[in-house]
Amino acid sequence: MARGNPAPGAASDEFEPEKKNVKELRLLWSFLSPYRKSIFVALAALIVTASSTLAIPKAAGRIVDVGFSDGNLDIINVYFLGLLGIVFILAVATFIRYYAVTWLGERVVADIRKAVYNRVITLSPTFFEQNRSGDIISRLTTDTTVIQTVVGSSASVALRHILTFLGGLIIMAMTSPKLLSVVLVAVPVVVFPIIFLGRKVKKLSKQSQDRIADASATANETVGAVQTVQSYTREHYEQSRFADFVENAFGVAIKRTRVRAWLTALVILMVFGAVDLVLWVGASDVASGRMSGGDLTAFLIYAVLVAGAVGALSEVYGELQRAAGAASRCLEIIATEPDIRAPEAPVPLPNPVQGNIDFRHVVFAYPSQPDIKTLDNFSLSVSKGETVAVVGPSGAGKSTVFQLLQRFYDPLSGEILIDGVPLNKADPEDVRRQMSVVHQESVIFAASIEENIRYGRIDATEEMVREAARAAQADEFISRLPDGMETWLGERGTRLSGGQKQRIAIARAILRDAPVLLLDEATSALDAESEKLVQAALDRLMEGRTTLVIAHRLATVLQADRIVVMDKGHIVDIGTHQELQQKDGLYARLAELQFADMRETA
Ligand SMILES: Nc1ncnc2c1ncn2[C@@H]1O[C@H](COP(=O)(O)OP(=O)(O)OP(=O)(O)O)[C@@H](O)[C@H]1O
């Protein structure tokens, strides 16, 4: 099958977070809103911590003015005890705030991960042609982690600093309006560069995430096909390709870091410069008796708190923006509707389904190549229980017929019916439930043999799984494995031979027990013994089912009730092996080439 190969970062570049800001917030809110109680607890704790923090300088100022000047030990004791009380409240509230906020972050991200995965797993093949799997996975991992940081910490840090900032300003105004006016002149000077550089950080963060996604997508692909890479001795090529991606990511990350470093340095310079100015003016006021030493002390601590809050806000601002980008990437997946959906009122398939299949004048082009008609006026009726072998040169459209029958795509025109019900009127799940598919490359999951077979039918009893393995001629080799059915198969079943994998896949299809069987015969040659076992397993699988088989073996075409010969999306001939062989057309030529075992058997 042809695969799209989008340019690096292409998939995610389409979605500019700037334009989706409002939606992004809505997305997060829809995930936060079920946890209103926790939000309330976190907010309450946050307000308590901010107020206690703000009370400390005031108390310190009072100690300076009252305690020191009178030299009264009792007053000192009361104030310090009071201070201890405030610190205690601060500690308890901080505990609650930290716990509640982190819990929220973890909870929301768990929910977002599930929502993204739940959507991804239902999307149509077109989506996966347009988005690389590495990019999709990075939304599940990297992007959700960024969101977690924000919900589970940055947002509360930001809120805490905003409260400190506002509360601090109010108390400062009450303490010394003159000194505050000095501070206020400094604020815009501090804030504008923050906003400007903050925007730049956001843009670079998005780019940086995309570049990392490029690198991991490449690694994902090549590690998955490491043997092919090594067979073609392309290690150096892949190394340098990967290095390019990584260096690219590094370059963008460093650019981002540079801007952030500027941002932080600028904030420090502005804020502490302003504090210095305030101290200067304040010290003159105390010296001339216009202000008490305690008030200046308190004011200064507030100024430091407010300055710290502004500085921290600028740090967090970048993070919030990064999360906005991440949220939009997650939202984008959650909002993607599968191309293939059940109609509002799906027509139920008969119960039980007989397995009559009808292709009527089907015209189809893949969405990525709308001008090329992969199937052109394709008509074929297959009756219940019939075995039809489909043969044709590579690219004739054989696999496409299977794709359409499982309704992974809809035809441009014409229709496909199962037991008289048009596929697009039925629920795709209902349609697919009637089919067992055995792929050319057996799909083996990193799980036990038992679980791999059970994938065909999750609720099967142990006995049913064993029976399916027996019917698929797999029981013997399984019993020879050290852990039998419980044997753990590595990723992609690398521990099994080709024939063994095929028999596991066949056992899975047998267990599924669907009325329609779609079989894409493996082209890879097996040794005679395995071939015999696989054939016996297939015979058992085809029994009593409507079978469409993309045939690569002579035994299969000989057994088929009819052979459909396809070329360039058309049916060019239909008949039995003998009939077609005599015509000396495309089939005879194909048979000569494809069925290597022909001369020996026929
Ligand atoms: N997802 C896709 N997007 C775009 N074009 C595709 C896609 N899958 C297949 N095609 C194209 O459609 C045509 C038919 O492909 P199909 O896989 O059905 O052929 P086939 O007869 O099964 O070939 P083979 O025996 O090599 O598997 C080919 O030209 C192929 O390049």
CATH topology of the largest domain: ABC transporter transmembrane region fold
Which value, in Å, is the CA radius of gyration?
35 Å
Q: Low-confidence parts lasting 5 or more residues at pLDDT below 50? A: 1-20, 598-602
Roughly what is the average pLDDT, rounded to an integer?
84
CATH superfamily of the largest domain: ABC transporter type 1, transmembrane domain
Q: How many separate helices?
A: 21
The best one-word shape is: elongated
Give the distinct bound molecules. adenosine-5'-triphosphate
Number of domains: 3
Report on this structure.
One of its GO terms (molecular function) is ATP binding. The chain is α/β, with parallel strands linked by helices and 602 residues long. The strands form 2 sheets. Strands 6-7-8-3-9-10 form a 6-stranded mixed beta sheet, sandwiched between helices. The model is unreliable at 1-20 and 598-602 (pLDDT under 50). α3 packs parallel to α6 (133-175) and α7 (177-224) runs parallel beside α10 (293-334). The chain is built from 21 helices and 10 strands. The protein binds adenosine-5'-triphosphate. The site of adenosine-5'-triphosphate has 15 residues, from α11.
